[in-house]
Design a protein that fits this description.
mainly alpha; 0% strand
């Protein structure tokens, strides 16, 4: 985490204070494939595109979706099991 803070604090970058727990969760789960979230956001984007091209008004606000509560609290064994549900690296 210190390496990330050092990179962000260099010239031209914004100085950011990141909570260690949030940073560790983001880094540990960044490379996994979460298909249900991709389907959720894909549906929202598709709906907004249809609304933009038609007579309805698209969203004009932020959409914040906090998923950290859905992640496991303890360490997870993410070794490939040879099934189609393995994360692609």
């Amino acid at each position: 985490m210190q390496a990330a803070k050092d990179i962000m604090n260099k010239e031209g970058h914004i100085s950011v204070d990141i909570e260690a727990e949030v940073f560790e969760k983001a880094v540990s789960w960044a490379s996994c494939s979460v298909n249900s979230l991709a389907a959720f956001f894909g549906g929202i984007v598709a709906q907004e595109i249809v609304k933009y091209t038609g007579k309805y008004s698209p969203l004009r606000q932020w959409l914040h979706f906090d998923i950290y509560e859905a992640l496991p609290r303890e360490a997870v064994d993410r070794q490939p099991m040879g099934s189609r549900y393995d994360d692609q690296i």
